[in-house]
């Protein structure tokens, strides 16, 4: 049942984003920033952690989850290191995911030989 719930929540988030892309003139990059900021704000006000616990990976994997991870890292770092934690907390908390995305993206480009669109 956890897999179905995660699939449904992740699919609903993606469907809402697709509707936003189709019905507005927002560019995909701005929508991505909007999702990260929304995840950060929802984490800051305490709404995202219960949602994440209920929805599982369906809420943790999309960009909303990335924003929440940045917020948690900044909060923990500010609590332990003070003002400098604002600058390094988010990077420390999300570095493994970012590094994984870069490494696997590079490996995929070596295997599949992407080409520019003409």
From TrEMBL:
InterPro entries: Spore_V_AE, SpoVA. The chain crosses the membrane at residues 31-47, 91-112. NCBIfam families: spore_V_AE (TIGR02839). This is Stage V sporulation protein AE. Keywords: Membrane, Transmembrane, Transmembrane helix. PANTHER family: STAGE V SPORULATION PROTEIN AC-RELATED, STAGE V SPORULATION PROTEIN AEB.
């Amino acid at each position: 049942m956890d897999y179905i719930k995660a699939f449904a929540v992740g699919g609903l988030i993606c469907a809402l984003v697709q509707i936003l892309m189709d019905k507005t003139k927002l560019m995909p990059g701005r929508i991505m920033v909007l999702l990260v900021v929304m995840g950060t704000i929802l984490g800051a006000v305490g709404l995202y952690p219960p949602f994440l616990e209920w929805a599982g990976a369906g809420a943790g994997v999309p960009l909303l989850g990335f924003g929440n991870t940045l917020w948690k890292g900044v909060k923990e770092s500010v609590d332990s290191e003070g003002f400098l934690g604002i600058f390094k907390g988010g990077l420390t908390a999300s570095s493994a995911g970012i590094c994984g995305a870069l490494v696997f993206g590079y490996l995929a480009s070596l295997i599949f030989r992407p080409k520019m669109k003409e």
